[in-house]
Amino acid sequence: MPLKRPLSTSSPLLSTHPTESSLCRVCDDSARIINYGTLSCQSCKTFFRRNGFHPKNIRLCLLNGSCEIDINTRRNCTACRFAKCLLMGMSPDLIRKEVQERKKHLQTRDTHTNQVIAVQQLKLTTPLPTLDLLYDDRSPLNNSEWTLLSNVTHAHDTFSAIPQIRHAIYHLSASLSSSLDTSYNVTDVFETITLMYTSMQSFISSSSDFRILTINEQSSLYQRNLHGIVALCSILFLQATQIIDNPICVKTFSIIYGSEMMIQAIRMCKKLDTDVIIIKLMLLILAFSSNCFIINQQEDTQNDSFLNGTYRLLGSQNVYVQLLWKYMTYRYGYYHAARRFFRLIEIVLDLIKYSGAVYTYNDTHHGLVDNILGQAKQSLIVDYDKQKPLWGKP
């Protein structure tokens, strides 16, 4: 994609006479003036002037340059918005020409105003803060943070059981469509729940933050957080595998968990953020919480390594919280990032409440997940000295 466009001999540098009311060629907002070669709104003019001098600093599009740019999405992707500005005829050379003409005008002023001229020249070469501080003050992710984000995504996808579950649902649907007497029985449900737990166990244990803990601390972390993590993971799985769209699967899950609980699960599936990167980061945030399981199990607290030392988790958790917030503001801007974050917290709190209720009142689920958790703790001892790749990478 070329970053320069030849100057148009027919387009004025900056028209001072309003033209007939029309739309911005870049984002379809109201526009009345030709800026840098194209009819554009004030927002796109400011955006292009801010980025036109240093196009190499613009971060690449996360969606391979396929973002649609309009009045509602123009702040989502800097790369695609800048590319559309160029495509519509805006030229960085016209920015330079404008700056040069302004400097020339300043140099003609009276010598008694030299101090004022110097200040104005400094302002011309230093980007001014805009009134939209919540948008322009956001911090971009640095290279190490992009690497960490990539590692988290890779690890989750490596250990995810979504492909296995989706494959099973596909064959179930195919069998039913062939009029075979096939049903999704409770054994399949137990297998699905087990896959969720083992995939999350592998995902968490592949992180360096988990590896530096002692076996007792790792066991305590599983005890406190694994059920809450799987609660969020289960909604992602239900959404991604289309289980909630399969009446046989929903009916079978309802046999174990009840129709009311399945109704709540379907409701949260529909509310869950569609950006799976946000969910993957939130799973790690929950993993390094002090406690995201609200059940008092009356166990020997003397063996709980984090009872008086939860501060040890804060450093790890804070890294992932900052990474989540930076990614969300980079992708969606402050306003929409805040709305998505609040909605995510609401879902997580509901899930922790419902998972506690199911664990307390559903003996079948209680016995199943206790057995899985016991095996997970035992595997910590067996596998402690084994060399395992971080983040699931070979």
UniProtKB/TrEMBL annotation:
Residues 21-97 form the Nuclear receptor domain. Transmembrane segments: none annotated. The keyword Acetylation does not apply. Residues 1-20 are annotated as: Disordered. InterPro entries: NHR-like_dom_sf, Nuclear_hormone_rcpt_NR1, Znf_hrmn_rcpt, Znf_NHR/GATA. Keywords: DNA-binding, Metal-binding, Nucleus, Receptor, Transcription, Transcription regulation, Zinc, Zinc-finger. GO terms for biological process: cell differentiation; negative regulation of transcription by RNA polymerase II; positive regulation of transcription by RNA polymerase II. SUPFAM superfamilies: Glucocorticoid receptor-like (DNA-binding domain), Nuclear receptor ligand-binding domain. GO terms for molecular function: nuclear receptor activity; RNA polymerase II cis-regulatory region sequence-specific DNA binding; zinc ion binding. This is Nuclear receptor domain-containing protein. It comes from Adineta steineri. The lineage of its organism: Eukaryota, Metazoa, Spiralia, Gnathifera, Rotifera.
